[in-house]
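Standup notes
- DV: blocked on the single-chain target, sequence here:
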Amino acid sequence: MLLEEARNLVFAGKIPAHQAIRDWLAGLTESELRPGSKLPPERQLAAALGVSRMTLRQALDAMAKEGLITRAVGGRGGSFIAEPRVSVDISHLIGLSAQLLNSVHSISSRVLAIETLPADAAVAEALQLAAGAPVHRVVRLRYASAAPVVLEDSYFPAELLPGLLERDLTGSIYAVMGDGYGLAPFSSVEELNPAIAGEANAKLLDISPNAPVLTIQRTALSEDGRPVEYSRDVIRTDRLRIVVSGRAEPAANRTTTYRAGRPQ
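- DV (later): unblocked, structure below
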């Protein structure tokens, strides 16, 4: 069916052929092509469109960069319609789970490691602790519609949160911190950087080791300004779309410090 539609595609003179193909396929992802659908082989699709494989690949490359399609190699190689990316706004502490549930059918978390250990230099500095002070470490993998989307590596001051590791940490840890200790994060300072997944992260997130990811280093603060969590997160950008919203404040309230909240 797709090949039949491709034969009827008319190229307008003002739009490059690869852009027209990209727009045509992108439109079909919103109407006819379901996530997971496999596109016809490049040779067949290019022939049906009446273009070279190089022109078709330009269109497919653009769609892959936008997260509209995914590529696979091996026995099940080819191009597939990607799952739509879910928007997560890191400006608000309303919870990653709540945001994901607006767009996907199911969410879950898997705890990979929990331990109490001495804080290394980076963790101690972020949490304003003495080097070697005890901290709780929680490593979790977050899922959206059964697909792993976020790898979290979080540290919490053990003195402020005694017994944290004995609680259920498969849901919102921030809710546990608020309900059990009165220390729900109120604000956070974050650093976002692009990166390549690497072997270890790729295995957990079920992506290629060369896939692009977004890393977030975050220090969350309680309402009285105490650091209560330091986290290093790795996010699949092919499944999650990270956004930051904001608004202008009255001139009298403006500062030079910008803070964003953490999805949890």
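- Follow-up: The first helix runs from residue 2 to 7.
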